[in-house]
Amino acid sequence: MAAFLKFASKTISSDGQLKSLLFQGSSPLFTKTRQFWNAHLLGTNLLSGCNSLTLSPFLLGTIQKRNITLLTTFKVVDNSALGKSVKKNRKPYLIGFYRKRKTADPGDVIRVAVAGKTNKAVVIGTRKTKHHTIPRYDNNCIVLVDDNLAPLGTRIKAPIPTILRKRQEKLSKVLALATRFI
Questions:
Q1: What is the DSSP string of 41-104?
Q2: CATH code: domain of residue 166
Q3: What is the number of domains present in the chain?
Q4: What is the chain's alpha carbon radius of gyration, rounded to the nearest angstrom?
Q5: Which domain holds residue 110?
Q6: Which Gene Ontology terms cover its molecular function (predicted)?
Q7: Cβ distance 117 to 55 under 8 Å?
Q8: Which among 77, 119, 59 is positioned nearest to 94, based on CA atoms?
């Protein structure tokens, strides 16, 4: 078993891909390494005979992409006075959610700290997306809103993903200001 773990650790590169999958050998170590990698992808036990050795996301890297969690920084994409007062060294950051799940997706309402004040914001775009049909942005983008979900600014500088049109009744005031959709 020690030889297998040594072989498996050599075949898994730093970015999490198997180097040994490039050659089509039929060695038993190659077969065990492939089983090890499949177990890593599925999140199950690494070895069928060993119940104590299980996959940890910290062991080989995370499997699920996380969008936005606490203390994530954002770029304000509207022309509100509060958004313009943001300094480069003190970007807005996430301090709370308005739902049970502790991640945010495009279209979610979150609580952010901007220039020493707390405010509601709507997530417009994220750097990491859960699905390939949702566009990726260079920065995590937000639009600052008040308690009635009306935008604080009069113009939105970034394009809005069309997936936000599904939340038309909730975000109608934000979508009315948008000039570009992607």
A1: HHTSEEETTEEEEE--HHHH--SSPP-B-TT-B-EE-B--HHHHT-BTTB--EEEEESSSSS-B
A2: 2.40.150.20
A3: 1
A4: 22
A5: 72-177
A6: structural constituent of ribosome
A7: no
A8: 119
CA 45 vs CA 14, 94, 150, 174: distances in Å: 21, 35, 49, 47
* pLDDT over threshold 60, residue 44: no
Structure tokens at 105: 């997706």
Residue 52 pLDDT greater than 50, yes or no? no
Residue 174 has pLDDT above 70, yes or no: yes
Q: Span 118-143, mean pLDDT?
A: 90
**Residue 43 dihedral angles phi and psi, to the nearest 5°:** 75, 30
Phi and psi for 156 in degrees, rounded to 5? Answer: -110, 125
pLDDT band at 132 (very low <50, low <70, confident <90, very high): confident
Query: Comparing C-alpha atoms, which of 92, 95, 94, 143 is closest to residue 114?
Result: 92
Looking at residues 80-100, what average pLDDT do you find?
A: 88
